[in-house]
Amino acid sequence: MEEILNPFPPEKSPCEGEQMFLQRKPLPYVPTQIDAFTTESALIRPSGRIIHPAEMKDKLREIGESKPPVAVFEVGGTNCWFRPGQINEEGLFVPTDELCEQNAFRLNDPTGKSYADFIGGISSELDPAIPIAFNAAGRHDGHKYIPTNSPGFRQYLQQHEFDLRCLFPEGTTVVSLNDAEAGVTGLVAEHPDLTENGAILLIQGTGLGVAVWDPISGRVIPTEGGHPRLDPNLNPHEQTLQHCSVHDDQRTCLEWVGSGKGVESLARRLYDNPTLTGPDIGRLFGVGYETAVDLYDNAARIGAHAALGIAHATSLPGNLDGVAVGLHGSLFDKIPGYPWKTDQYLTSYTDARPQVVLSGNVPSGNLSNSGAAYLAALEGY
Protein backbone atom coordinates (compact mmCIF):
# COMPACT_ATOMS: atom_id res chain seq x y z
CA MET A 1 0.00 0.00 0.00
CA GLU A 2 1.27 3.49 -0.91
CA GLU A 3 1.53 5.44 2.36
CA ILE A 4 0.70 9.12 2.76
CA LEU A 5 3.40 11.29 4.28
CA ASN A 6 2.71 12.92 7.62
CA PRO A 7 2.42 15.88 7.67
CA PHE A 8 0.28 15.90 4.54
CA PRO A 9 2.29 16.79 1.41
CA PRO A 10 2.18 20.47 0.42
CA GLU A 11 1.02 21.90 -2.89
CA LYS A 12 3.62 21.55 -5.63
CA SER A 13 4.23 23.24 -8.97
CA PRO A 14 4.60 22.05 -11.65
CA CYS A 15 1.98 19.40 -11.02
CA GLU A 16 3.68 15.99 -11.05
CA GLY A 17 0.40 14.17 -11.56
CA GLU A 18 -0.19 16.12 -14.77
CA GLN A 19 3.29 15.22 -16.00
CA MET A 20 2.56 11.57 -15.28
CA PHE A 21 -0.71 11.91 -17.23
CA LEU A 22 1.17 13.33 -20.21
CA GLN A 23 3.72 10.50 -20.22
CA ARG A 24 1.33 7.58 -19.81
CA LYS A 25 -0.04 5.55 -22.67
CA PRO A 26 -3.84 5.23 -22.73
CA LEU A 27 -5.34 2.34 -20.80
CA PRO A 28 -7.07 -0.30 -22.95
CA TYR A 29 -10.43 0.18 -24.62
CA VAL A 30 -13.20 -2.16 -23.37
CA PRO A 31 -15.77 -2.75 -26.18
CA THR A 32 -17.97 -4.89 -23.93
CA GLN A 33 -18.62 -1.80 -21.83
CA ILE A 34 -19.96 0.03 -24.88
CA ASP A 35 -22.36 -2.87 -25.47
CA ALA A 36 -23.75 -2.36 -21.94
CA PHE A 37 -25.24 1.01 -22.92
CA THR A 38 -28.89 0.54 -23.84
CA THR A 39 -32.03 2.64 -23.63
CA GLU A 40 -32.94 0.79 -20.44
CA SER A 41 -29.55 0.67 -18.68
CA ALA A 42 -28.78 4.35 -19.32
CA LEU A 43 -32.40 5.52 -19.03
CA ILE A 44 -32.18 7.26 -22.39
CA ARG A 45 -35.22 9.52 -22.66
CA PRO A 46 -35.75 10.81 -26.22
CA SER A 47 -38.61 13.03 -25.10
CA GLY A 48 -36.45 16.01 -24.10
CA ARG A 49 -36.78 19.59 -25.24
CA ILE A 50 -36.44 20.48 -28.93
CA ILE A 51 -33.80 23.09 -29.73
CA HIS A 52 -33.16 24.74 -33.07
CA PRO A 53 -29.97 26.76 -32.47
CA ALA A 54 -30.57 29.62 -34.91
CA GLU A 55 -34.17 30.10 -33.78
CA MET A 56 -33.17 29.95 -30.10
CA LYS A 57 -30.35 32.45 -30.60
CA ASP A 58 -32.71 34.90 -32.36
CA LYS A 59 -35.20 34.67 -29.49
CA LEU A 60 -32.47 35.13 -26.87
CA ARG A 61 -31.13 38.19 -28.66
CA GLU A 62 -34.64 39.65 -28.79
CA ILE A 63 -35.07 38.96 -25.06
CA GLY A 64 -31.60 40.39 -24.38
CA GLU A 65 -32.43 43.80 -25.83
CA SER A 66 -33.78 44.79 -22.40
CA LYS A 67 -31.07 42.84 -20.49
CA PRO A 68 -33.61 41.04 -18.30
CA PRO A 69 -32.51 39.24 -15.14
CA VAL A 70 -32.51 35.47 -14.75
CA ALA A 71 -31.33 33.35 -11.81
CA VAL A 72 -29.82 29.87 -11.62
CA PHE A 73 -29.61 27.44 -8.72
CA GLU A 74 -27.18 24.58 -9.32
CA VAL A 75 -27.25 21.61 -6.96
CA GLY A 76 -24.37 19.14 -6.71
CA GLY A 77 -23.61 16.28 -4.38
CA THR A 78 -22.00 18.39 -1.65
CA ASN A 79 -22.57 21.96 -2.81
CA CYS A 80 -25.41 24.23 -3.84
CA TRP A 81 -24.76 27.42 -5.80
CA PHE A 82 -26.80 30.50 -6.71
CA ARG A 83 -25.80 32.43 -9.82
CA PRO A 84 -27.69 35.66 -10.66
CA GLY A 85 -27.28 37.07 -14.15
CA GLN A 86 -28.93 38.54 -17.21
CA ILE A 87 -29.32 37.88 -20.92
CA ASN A 88 -27.33 40.44 -22.94
CA GLU A 89 -27.84 41.87 -26.42
CA GLU A 90 -25.88 38.99 -27.97
CA GLY A 91 -28.24 36.49 -26.38
CA LEU A 92 -25.64 35.27 -23.88
CA PHE A 93 -26.03 34.67 -20.16
CA VAL A 94 -23.80 37.06 -18.23
CA PRO A 95 -23.36 36.69 -14.44
CA THR A 96 -24.08 39.97 -12.67
CA ASP A 97 -22.95 39.21 -9.14
CA GLU A 98 -20.68 36.97 -7.13
CA LEU A 99 -21.47 33.27 -6.94
CA CYS A 100 -23.16 32.30 -3.66
CA GLU A 101 -22.40 28.84 -2.33
CA GLN A 102 -23.73 26.50 0.33
CA ASN A 103 -21.60 23.48 1.23
CA ALA A 104 -23.64 20.77 2.95
CA PHE A 105 -20.56 18.60 3.47
CA ARG A 106 -18.82 21.28 5.54
CA LEU A 107 -22.01 21.83 7.51
CA ASN A 108 -22.24 18.08 8.22
CA ASP A 109 -25.88 18.22 7.14
CA PRO A 110 -27.32 14.74 6.55
CA THR A 111 -30.92 16.00 6.20
CA GLY A 112 -30.64 18.31 3.18
CA LYS A 113 -32.27 21.12 5.16
CA SER A 114 -29.28 23.40 4.54
CA TYR A 115 -29.94 23.21 0.79
CA ALA A 116 -33.63 23.94 1.30
CA ASP A 117 -32.88 26.89 3.61
CA PHE A 118 -30.26 28.25 1.20
CA ILE A 119 -32.53 28.06 -1.86
CA GLY A 120 -35.65 29.20 -0.05
CA GLY A 121 -33.88 32.08 1.69
CA ILE A 122 -32.48 33.53 -1.51
CA SER A 123 -35.57 32.95 -3.66
CA SER A 124 -37.83 34.61 -1.07
CA GLU A 125 -35.90 37.87 -1.61
CA LEU A 126 -36.07 37.75 -5.41
CA ASP A 127 -38.68 39.48 -7.51
CA PRO A 128 -41.18 36.69 -8.38
CA ALA A 129 -41.14 37.95 -11.97
CA ILE A 130 -37.52 36.79 -12.39
CA PRO A 131 -37.46 33.34 -14.00
CA ILE A 132 -35.41 30.77 -12.09
CA ALA A 133 -33.57 27.75 -13.46
CA PHE A 134 -33.10 24.80 -11.11
CA ASN A 135 -30.18 22.80 -12.50
CA ALA A 136 -29.22 19.56 -10.73
CA ALA A 137 -28.12 15.96 -11.19
CA GLY A 138 -31.02 13.54 -10.88
CA ARG A 139 -34.42 12.81 -12.34
CA HIS A 140 -36.69 15.69 -13.37
CA ASP A 141 -40.33 15.51 -14.42
CA GLY A 142 -42.01 18.88 -14.59
CA HIS A 143 -41.76 20.29 -11.07
CA LYS A 144 -40.87 16.90 -9.62
CA TYR A 145 -37.20 16.36 -8.81
CA ILE A 146 -35.54 13.26 -7.33
CA PRO A 147 -31.86 13.84 -6.41
CA THR A 148 -29.38 11.04 -7.05
CA ASN A 149 -26.18 12.49 -5.52
CA SER A 150 -27.48 14.20 -2.37
CA PRO A 151 -29.35 11.72 -0.13
CA GLY A 152 -30.16 14.32 2.51
CA PHE A 153 -31.79 16.67 0.02
CA ARG A 154 -33.68 13.72 -1.44
CA GLN A 155 -34.98 12.89 2.03
CA TYR A 156 -36.09 16.50 2.54
CA LEU A 157 -37.90 16.72 -0.82
CA GLN A 158 -39.60 13.38 -0.25
CA GLN A 159 -41.52 15.02 2.59
CA HIS A 160 -42.95 17.37 -0.06
CA GLU A 161 -43.64 14.63 -2.66
CA PHE A 162 -40.49 15.78 -4.51
CA ASP A 163 -42.26 18.96 -5.63
CA LEU A 164 -39.68 21.73 -6.10
CA ARG A 165 -42.33 24.42 -5.70
CA CYS A 166 -42.01 23.99 -1.95
CA LEU A 167 -38.70 25.90 -2.23
CA PHE A 168 -39.94 28.95 -4.14
CA PRO A 169 -42.51 31.73 -3.68
CA GLU A 170 -45.88 31.07 -5.28
CA GLY A 171 -46.10 32.30 -8.85
CA THR A 172 -42.35 32.06 -9.58
CA THR A 173 -41.42 30.67 -13.01
CA VAL A 174 -39.15 27.70 -12.27
CA VAL A 175 -37.54 25.58 -14.99
CA SER A 176 -36.23 22.31 -13.60
CA LEU A 177 -33.72 20.28 -15.59
CA ASN A 178 -30.89 17.79 -15.28
CA ASP A 179 -27.40 19.32 -15.18
CA ALA A 180 -26.22 17.38 -18.24
CA GLU A 181 -29.36 18.40 -20.17
CA ALA A 182 -28.67 22.02 -19.19
CA GLY A 183 -25.03 21.71 -20.20
CA VAL A 184 -25.66 20.31 -23.67
CA THR A 185 -28.21 23.11 -24.19
CA GLY A 186 -25.54 25.65 -23.25
CA LEU A 187 -23.08 23.98 -25.62
CA VAL A 188 -25.50 24.20 -28.56
CA ALA A 189 -26.48 27.79 -27.72
CA GLU A 190 -22.93 29.11 -27.36
CA HIS A 191 -21.20 27.01 -30.04
CA PRO A 192 -23.69 26.48 -32.89
CA ASP A 193 -20.73 26.41 -35.32
CA LEU A 194 -19.30 23.31 -33.59
CA THR A 195 -22.54 21.38 -33.10
CA GLU A 196 -23.71 20.81 -36.70
CA ASN A 197 -22.93 17.07 -36.30
CA GLY A 198 -24.50 16.89 -32.86
CA ALA A 199 -23.40 17.51 -29.31
CA ILE A 200 -22.81 15.52 -26.16
CA LEU A 201 -22.05 16.75 -22.66
CA LEU A 202 -19.99 14.65 -20.24
CA ILE A 203 -20.14 15.58 -16.56
CA GLN A 204 -17.66 14.19 -14.05
CA GLY A 205 -18.02 15.83 -10.68
CA THR A 206 -19.55 14.24 -7.61
CA GLY A 207 -21.38 11.99 -10.09
CA LEU A 208 -21.15 11.07 -13.76
CA GLY A 209 -23.74 12.28 -16.26
CA VAL A 210 -24.24 12.47 -20.04
CA ALA A 211 -26.76 14.21 -22.31
CA VAL A 212 -27.05 14.43 -26.10
CA TRP A 213 -28.37 16.90 -28.66
CA ASP A 214 -29.52 15.30 -31.92
CA PRO A 215 -29.04 17.74 -34.83
CA ILE A 216 -31.60 15.98 -37.05
CA SER A 217 -34.60 16.18 -34.72
CA GLY A 218 -33.25 19.08 -32.65
CA ARG A 219 -34.12 17.07 -29.57
CA VAL A 220 -32.17 17.12 -26.31
CA ILE A 221 -31.82 13.58 -24.98
CA PRO A 222 -31.24 13.30 -21.22
CA THR A 223 -29.65 10.06 -20.01
CA GLU A 224 -28.25 8.46 -16.90
CA GLY A 225 -24.97 7.62 -18.61
CA GLY A 226 -23.17 6.90 -15.35
CA HIS A 227 -25.46 4.05 -14.35
CA PRO A 228 -25.08 1.06 -16.67
CA ARG A 229 -23.28 -1.83 -14.99
CA LEU A 230 -19.49 -1.32 -14.89
CA ASP A 231 -17.45 -3.85 -16.86
CA PRO A 232 -14.90 -5.62 -14.57
CA ASN A 233 -12.11 -4.62 -16.97
CA LEU A 234 -12.76 -0.98 -16.03
CA ASN A 235 -12.63 -1.76 -12.32
CA PRO A 236 -8.93 -2.56 -11.69
CA HIS A 237 -9.09 -1.46 -8.04
CA GLU A 238 -12.10 -3.70 -7.39
CA GLN A 239 -14.67 -1.21 -6.24
CA THR A 240 -17.11 -3.14 -4.09
CA LEU A 241 -19.78 -0.51 -3.41
CA GLN A 242 -22.73 -1.99 -5.25
CA HIS A 243 -25.85 0.09 -4.77
CA CYS A 244 -26.83 2.05 -7.86
CA SER A 245 -28.85 5.09 -6.82
CA VAL A 246 -30.68 5.28 -10.17
CA HIS A 247 -31.61 1.65 -10.76
CA ASP A 248 -31.92 1.13 -7.00
CA ASP A 249 -30.33 -2.29 -7.18
CA GLN A 250 -27.11 -4.06 -6.28
CA ARG A 251 -24.65 -3.19 -9.02
CA THR A 252 -21.35 -1.39 -9.36
CA CYS A 253 -22.18 1.21 -11.99
CA LEU A 254 -19.73 3.45 -13.85
CA GLU A 255 -20.37 6.33 -11.45
CA TRP A 256 -18.96 4.37 -8.49
CA VAL A 257 -15.50 4.43 -10.11
CA GLY A 258 -15.57 7.19 -12.75
CA SER A 259 -16.67 10.16 -10.64
CA GLY A 260 -15.46 12.27 -7.73
CA LYS A 261 -17.33 10.18 -5.18
CA GLY A 262 -16.02 7.00 -6.80
CA VAL A 263 -12.41 8.17 -6.68
CA GLU A 264 -12.90 9.30 -3.09
CA SER A 265 -14.35 5.99 -1.90
CA LEU A 266 -11.59 4.00 -3.61
CA ALA A 267 -8.82 6.25 -2.29
CA ARG A 268 -10.11 5.95 1.26
CA ARG A 269 -9.87 2.16 1.04
CA LEU A 270 -6.59 1.99 -0.88
CA TYR A 271 -4.86 4.48 1.43
CA ASP A 272 -6.62 3.06 4.51
CA ASN A 273 -7.73 6.56 5.44
CA PRO A 274 -11.52 7.04 5.88
CA THR A 275 -11.22 10.84 6.21
CA LEU A 276 -9.70 11.59 2.80
CA THR A 277 -11.64 14.20 0.82
CA GLY A 278 -11.63 15.08 -2.87
CA PRO A 279 -9.26 18.05 -2.33
CA ASP A 280 -6.92 15.76 -0.35
CA ILE A 281 -6.77 13.27 -3.23
CA GLY A 282 -6.22 16.13 -5.66
CA ARG A 283 -3.17 17.17 -3.64
CA LEU A 284 -1.85 13.61 -3.65
CA PHE A 285 -2.27 13.65 -7.43
CA GLY A 286 -0.46 16.98 -7.60
CA VAL A 287 2.68 15.66 -5.90
CA GLY A 288 2.70 12.47 -7.93
CA TYR A 289 1.23 9.78 -5.69
CA GLU A 290 0.91 6.79 -8.00
CA THR A 291 -2.38 5.49 -6.63
CA ALA A 292 -4.09 8.89 -6.93
CA VAL A 293 -2.84 9.24 -10.51
CA ASP A 294 -4.08 5.70 -11.29
CA LEU A 295 -7.56 6.52 -9.95
CA TYR A 296 -7.95 9.70 -12.00
CA ASP A 297 -6.48 8.03 -15.09
CA ASN A 298 -9.05 5.24 -14.91
CA ALA A 299 -11.84 7.76 -14.21
CA ALA A 300 -10.92 9.62 -17.41
CA ARG A 301 -11.03 6.29 -19.28
CA ILE A 302 -14.48 5.58 -17.86
CA GLY A 303 -15.70 9.04 -18.87
CA ALA A 304 -14.60 8.39 -22.45
CA HIS A 305 -16.41 5.03 -22.43
CA ALA A 306 -19.56 6.74 -21.11
CA ALA A 307 -19.53 9.32 -23.93
CA LEU A 308 -18.89 6.68 -26.58
CA GLY A 309 -21.45 4.31 -25.07
CA ILE A 310 -24.19 6.93 -25.14
CA ALA A 311 -23.25 7.87 -28.71
CA HIS A 312 -23.63 4.22 -29.76
CA ALA A 313 -26.98 3.94 -28.00
CA THR A 314 -28.39 7.14 -29.55
CA SER A 315 -28.37 8.77 -32.96
CA LEU A 316 -24.88 10.33 -32.80
CA PRO A 317 -21.95 8.97 -34.80
CA GLY A 318 -20.60 6.09 -32.73
CA ASN A 319 -17.03 7.40 -32.92
CA LEU A 320 -18.10 11.00 -32.16
CA ASP A 321 -16.30 12.23 -35.28
CA GLY A 322 -17.08 15.93 -35.72
CA VAL A 323 -19.41 15.92 -32.70
CA ALA A 324 -19.05 18.68 -30.10
CA VAL A 325 -18.12 17.11 -26.76
CA GLY A 326 -18.53 19.39 -23.74
CA LEU A 327 -16.53 18.54 -20.61
CA HIS A 328 -18.06 19.80 -17.37
CA GLY A 329 -17.54 19.19 -13.66
CA SER A 330 -15.00 19.36 -10.85
CA LEU A 331 -12.66 16.67 -12.23
CA PHE A 332 -12.17 18.74 -15.39
CA ASP A 333 -11.87 21.97 -13.40
CA LYS A 334 -9.61 20.87 -10.54
CA ILE A 335 -7.40 18.01 -11.74
CA PRO A 336 -4.61 19.38 -13.97
CA GLY A 337 -4.41 17.57 -17.29
CA TYR A 338 -7.74 15.76 -16.83
CA PRO A 339 -9.49 17.36 -19.85
CA TRP A 340 -6.47 16.55 -22.03
CA LYS A 341 -6.44 12.94 -20.79
CA THR A 342 -10.14 12.54 -21.58
CA ASP A 343 -9.59 13.93 -25.07
CA GLN A 344 -6.67 11.51 -25.52
CA TYR A 345 -8.91 8.57 -24.67
CA LEU A 346 -11.68 9.70 -27.01
CA THR A 347 -9.35 10.11 -29.98
CA SER A 348 -7.15 7.06 -29.35
CA TYR A 349 -10.14 4.73 -29.05
CA THR A 350 -11.80 5.81 -32.31
CA ASP A 351 -9.20 7.48 -34.57
CA ALA A 352 -11.81 10.24 -34.88
CA ARG A 353 -11.71 13.89 -33.97
CA PRO A 354 -14.51 15.23 -31.76
CA GLN A 355 -14.79 18.97 -31.12
CA VAL A 356 -13.88 19.14 -27.42
CA VAL A 357 -15.09 22.18 -25.44
CA LEU A 358 -14.20 22.75 -21.78
CA SER A 359 -17.16 24.17 -19.86
CA GLY A 360 -15.08 26.72 -17.97
CA ASN A 361 -13.73 28.21 -21.21
CA VAL A 362 -17.06 29.28 -22.74
CA PRO A 363 -18.17 32.96 -22.74
CA SER A 364 -20.58 32.46 -19.82
CA GLY A 365 -18.00 30.51 -17.80
CA ASN A 366 -20.20 27.46 -17.22
CA LEU A 367 -22.14 25.49 -19.85
CA SER A 368 -24.58 23.96 -17.40
CA ASN A 369 -25.58 27.23 -15.75
CA SER A 370 -25.84 29.09 -19.04
CA GLY A 371 -27.99 26.39 -20.67
CA ALA A 372 -30.32 26.41 -17.70
CA ALA A 373 -30.49 30.22 -17.78
CA TYR A 374 -31.38 30.24 -21.50
CA LEU A 375 -34.28 27.86 -21.01
CA ALA A 376 -35.58 29.81 -18.01
CA ALA A 377 -35.40 33.07 -19.98
CA LEU A 378 -37.23 31.54 -22.96
CA GLU A 379 -40.02 30.30 -20.69
CA GLY A 380 -40.21 33.36 -18.44
CA TYR A 381 -40.04 36.09 -21.07
Structure write-up:
The chain is an alpha/beta fold. The chain has two domains: 16-46 and 195-361, Nucleotidyltransferase, domain 5; 66-184 and 365-380, 2-Layer Sandwich (Nucleotidyltransferase, domain 5). The chain is 35% helix and 18% strand. The model has no long low-confidence stretch (mean pLDDT 89).
SSE diagram, text form:
Layout: H1 16-23, H2 31-35, H3 53-64, E1 69-75, E2 79-87, E3 93-95, E4 100-103, H4 113-123, E5 132-136, E6 138-141, E7 144-147, H5 151-158, E8 174-178, H6 179-190, E9 199-204, E10 208-213, E11 220-222, E12 243-244, E13 249-250, H7 260-270, H8 278-286, H9 290-313, E14 324-328, H10 330-334, H11 338-350, E15 355-358, H12 367-380
Parallel strand pairs: 1-5, 5-8, 9-14, 14-15
Antiparallel strand pairs: 1-2, 2-3, 2-4, 6-7, 9-10, 10-11, 12-13
Helix pairs in contact: 6-12, 7-9, 8-9, 9-11
* Low-confidence regions: none
What composes the largest sheet?
A: 6 strands, mixed
- Helix count equals 12
Estimate the helix proportion, in percent.
Answer: 25-40%
Report the C-alpha radius of gyration, rounded.
20 Å
Question: Could you give the distance between the termini?
Answer: 58 Å
Integer average pLDDT = 89
SS-based structural class? Answer: alpha/beta
Output the CATH class name of the largest domain.
Alpha Beta
Which range does the strand content fall in? 15-25%
The 3D shape can be described as: globular
- Along the chain, the helix and strand elements come as HHHEEEEHEEEHEHEEEEEHHHEHHEH
- Second CATH tier, the architecture of the largest domain: 2-Layer Sandwich
